[in-house]
Amino acid sequence: MIVAVANTKGGVGKTTLAVQLSLARALAGRDVWLIDGDRQGTAMAAIAARSEAEKQPGIACAQYADGPQIRAQVQQQLGKWDDIIIDVGGRDSTALRAALILADTLLVPFAPRSYDVWALDDMAELVDDARSVRDGLRAFAVMNQADPGPLSTDNLDAIAAVTEVPQLIYLPTPLRRRKAFSNAGGAGLSVTELSPRDPKAIAEINALVKRLF
Ligand SMILES: Nc1ncnc2c1ncn2[C@@H]1O[C@H](COP(=O)(O)OP(=O)(O)O)[C@@H](O)[C@H]1O
Ligand SMILES: [Mg+2]
């Protein structure tokens, strides 16, 4: 399955979730290719940290910042992988558009701040554009960096706004703001590999993986 983790907005957790999803699938025994489609190369750096630590399984990762290159590479290598996860940078780029044409599934992480929720209108338009030239793109939105504990009124308001975007299906598997996510992400580790273990972070990622795949 090809999953694009995308949002025109930066800092919403695209790289964090792309790395966690890749690791969850690899740890489940699948051959995973992670494509870093952002010039900043954050996903690539995380996977480099993992290979320097010689952590198994290793994850194949490549960085291509432009759309035509991503498209050509994915089409060439499609048969080699069980899952391809594409992390695409925070603006309306050719990489993002290419990812939306290639993917079976789009995951749009959003943070529960009003300006992030507005950015979902951009994503809705991009999904419309992609669907006008292809069939079968599933598009989901998931809240990331939610307040710890029960969802606050702000968080619930953001969810209500997202459910009004018809192009995106809201996944009721929010991820809270947790140190485990930022610590694991930087080191190229799954939250399941991190010590001390954070059972809540693990449960949140597992719930998301189950919904997506
Ligand atoms: N659920 C979370 N809990 C805590 N920190 C998070 C969470 N998701 C992302 N972060 C942190 O927020 C910052 C932005 O996340 P990142 O995945 O790089 O966003 P993007 O790729 O969308 O720009 C990073 O420092 C990351 O570690
Ligand atoms: Mg990123």
Please summarize what this structure is:
The chain is of the alpha/beta class and 213 residues long.
What this model shows, in words?
Residues 3-189 form the CobQ/CobB/MinD/ParA nucleotide binding domain. The protein has 213 residues and is of the alpha/beta class. The protein has one domain: Rossmann fold. The chain has helices at residues 14-27, 42-52, 67-77, 94-102, 114-133, 153-163, 179-187, 199-212, and strands spanning 2-6, 32-37, 60-63, 83-88, 105-110, 138-143, 169-170. A 7-stranded parallel β-sheet has the order 3-2-4-1-5-6-7, sandwiched between helices. The longest helix is centred in the middle third of the chain and has 20 residues, at 114-133. It is globular. The protein starts with a strand and ends with a helix. Residues 14-15, 38, 42 line the site of magnesium ion. Magnesium ion binds at residues 14-15, 38, 42.
Provide the fold topology.
Layout (H helix, E strand, L loop, with lengths): L1 E5 L7 H14 L4 E6 L4 H11 L7 E4 L3 H11 L5 E6 L5 H9 L2 E6 L3 H20 L4 E6 L9 H11 L5 E2 L8 H9 L11 H14 L1
Parallel strand pairs: 1-4, 1-5, 2-3, 2-4, 5-6, 6-7
Bound molecules: adenosine-5'-diphosphate and magnesium ion.
The site of adenosine-5'-diphosphate (ADP) has 17 residues, from helix 1 and helix 7.
